[in-house]
Hints:
By secondary structure, this protein is α/β, with parallel strands linked by helices. The protein has nine helices and ten strands. The protein has a six-stranded parallel sheet, sandwiched between helices. A four-stranded mixed sheet has the order 1-4-2-3. Helix 6 links the parallel strand 6 (125-129) and strand 7 (153-156). Helix 1 (10-19) runs parallel beside helix 2 (39-47). The longest helix has 19 residues, at 229-247.
Amino acid sequence: MEETLTIYGRKPIEEQLKREPRRIETIYVKDSVPTAPLQDILSMASENRIPVRKVPGRKLSDMVGAVNDQGVIATLSAVEYSEFEDWLPTVDIRTNPIVMVLDELEDVANFGAILRTAAAAGIAGVIVPKHRQAPVNAVVYKTSAGTVGLVPIIRVTNVNLTLRELKEAGYWVCALDQSAPQPAWKQDLVTPLVIVVGSEGDGIRQKTLELCDFKVKFPMHNDVESLNASVSAALLSYEALRQRHIRQ
Length: 248
């Protein structure tokens, strides 16, 4: 369990109130902000008996820094990660599930965007290492548009060991790598699939890459070297979904 989390912005807080209001401890509202734009938040907070405190703007700045907080922030109880051994049996491999493994992704904005994609694409789980991995913080919540919690986040000590266990369970492991011999749409992705996404600077570590069953890429034009990690993850997820739709 992580320490208490602070999120900010109207949309993420509204989404949290709709999904898991019990995790919200307190909502802080800037005392100079009109009530009307926050009416939905205030109503849901009242319905769920969540305390709302009106505070000076500097209080919000002290809590979340110089960000566009839209005059409202909320403190949440800690995010609870899933254990790999508990999560794995809950996924029906006969449905050709898609799982994401993040290999030391340290940019919180990318992490949030990937969690948003995972929720939208129906990804069965997002596996992250315990070390050298972006935490689930306020920026992740903001970037994910409040979708944190819709998809299990599984923390593991050793990514490579986890990939071996997934392979033993019947998954095929796919790496996003620009050195791949073919583009994603030429690779059969209709299988229990693990998508490995590398770090922003170094990509997928060599030992991890060696464990992958195949590699795919997205062709680049105009001397562009690669896409943002979260964009690549989204494209590959939806290519896998497209192929599944065609096979139906």
